[in-house]
Design goal:
Layout lengths: L8 E2 L2 H7 L4 H11 L6 E2 H4 L10 H6 L21 E3 L2 E2 L5 E5 L28 H10 L5 E5 L8 H12 L6 E5 L2 H4 L2 H4 L2 H10 L6 E5 L9 H12 L3 E8 L7 H13 L3 E7 L7 H4 L3 H12 L10 E6 L2 E9 L2 E9 L8 E5 L13
Parallel strand pairs: 5-6, 6-7, 7-8, 8-9, 9-10, 10-11
Antiparallel strand pairs: 1-2, 3-4, 4-5, 11-12, 12-13, 13-14
Bound molecules: iron/sulfur cluster.
Length: about 375
């Protein structure tokens, strides 16, 4: 099922050491950590690392560090297991069905919120496509499907076509989305396979558009090759949205964040969300930025953004829903449910006393 093969993909610390410089202690640590959560990086993405920069953001997103030893946090911060209807089918918000089509990715991002399953044997991956179609067909309130994983663009093109054909048969769907980081970490997957773009074009109709939700986190990821992959997707009739994850040491800087959102608009990608990094075990300690600081960074970045580049919402994807961080007033955070698991929370505004160290809603006193 996998389209990537081993070509251009690094999966061992030895291979990694041939491409980037690793000290001996670092190699030992990587070997130890990769037994818990595997390492995988495309050679393309590795080539973006600046070896002369000890703080290189691409390296931080790709290679494990000591912080990954910390198990503070949870492996299921958004309650995904409780939203699972059947293996690989989640239904949290009434309009959206989420399909986990694979546990593979072109690159395993060290901050991934599905760290519990990427690159690992998992019971949470779709096994029965017919059952998924049957469930969605029986639920008229579902008007869109998000095919994600893992990264569905690592599947072979025939399987992608099969998924699209199956979900296109559901008349009440308005649109189908792919959540994929392939345009960022392995654009060659799109550029070297004309058939993939043909399949996508065939299914992106004027009355039922296909959407890509991708994830650029740093302006350095927007390379010529990546822009061409985006161009291929747009020329095939797909709309491309971006969700950035706010990550310590990567993009927790107003100038970097503003540059990223402005550049995305320049290449035709719509800023959709900026996500507060979730308190994921083996992620939280390294990548989470306190909410207060995150809010300040986002607001500072907005001073350098125009209407199009500030269309995103700053969101905490909480177990109870997608909660927008609206602002701070009289020493209190103001949050609003943008999407709610429980319909009674829809649109609800809540406030919490500011705690400058808090990184998640649950850290704040009611
Ligand atoms: S590509 Fe997406 S699913 Fe895969 S590791 Fe990165 S963030 Fe997680």
């Amino acid at each position: 099922m996998n389209e990537l093969g081993s070509n251009g993909i690094v999966t061992s610390v030895d291979e990694l050491g041939e491409i980037v410089s690793l000290s001996e202690p670092e190699e030992e640590m990587l070997n130890r950590l990769s037994e818990i959560h595997p390492i995988k990086v495309s050679e393309y993405y590795l080539s973006l690392i600046d070896e002369n920069d000890p703080e290189d953001p691409i390296r931080k997103m790709t290679l494990p560090t000591e912080g990954e030893l910390s198990v503070d946090g949870s492996y299921d911060t958004s309650g995904e297991v409780s939203n699972t209807i059947l293996p690989g089918i989640q239904h949290k918000y009434s309009q959206t069905a989420v399909i986990l089509a694979t546990a593979e990715c072109a690159t395993y991002c060290r901050y991934c919120f599905r760290k519990r399953l990427v690159g690992l044997p998992s019971q949470e991956i779709l096994r029965n496509l017919d059952a998924a179609v049957e469930y969605i067909s029986a639920h008229q309130e579902i008007n869109n499907v998000l095919i994600t994983g893992g990264d569905p663009f690592t599947l072979n093109t025939n399987r992608i076509a099969e998924l699209l054909e199956a979900f296109s048969s559901v008349a009440h769907l308005d649109f189908i989305r792919f959540g994929t980081r392939v345009p960022v970490t392995f654009p060659g997957r799109i550029l070297d396979d004309d058939k993939l773009l043909e399949v996508l074009k065939e299914h992106s109709r004027t009355d039922r558009r296909l959407f890509i939700v991708t994830q650029y986190n740093h302006p350095r990821e927007i390379t010529e090759e990546s822009i061409q992959a985006i161009e291929g997707l747009m020329a095939s009739g797909l709309a491309v949205n971006n969700q950035t994850v706010l990550l310590k040491g990567v993009n927790d800087d107003a100038e970097v964040l503003a540059n990223l959102q402005n550049t995305l608009v320049r290449i035709g990608v719509n800023p959709y969300y900026v996500f507060q990094c979730r308190p994921v075990a083996r992620v939280k300690a390294t990548f989470q930025v306190p909410l207060y600081m995150g809010y300040r960074i986002v607001e500072e970045a907005k001073k350098h953004l125009h209407g199009h580049s500030k269309r995103f919402r700053f969101i905490m994807s909480h177990e109870s829903g997608k909660i927008e961080i609206l602002g701070i007033m009289n020493g209190r955070f103001l949050f609003k449910y943008h999407q709610a698991k429980n319909p009674r929370d829809a649109g609800r505004i809540i406030s919490r006393a500011v705690d400058k160290t808090a990184t998640w809603l649950d850290d704040l006193e009611k």
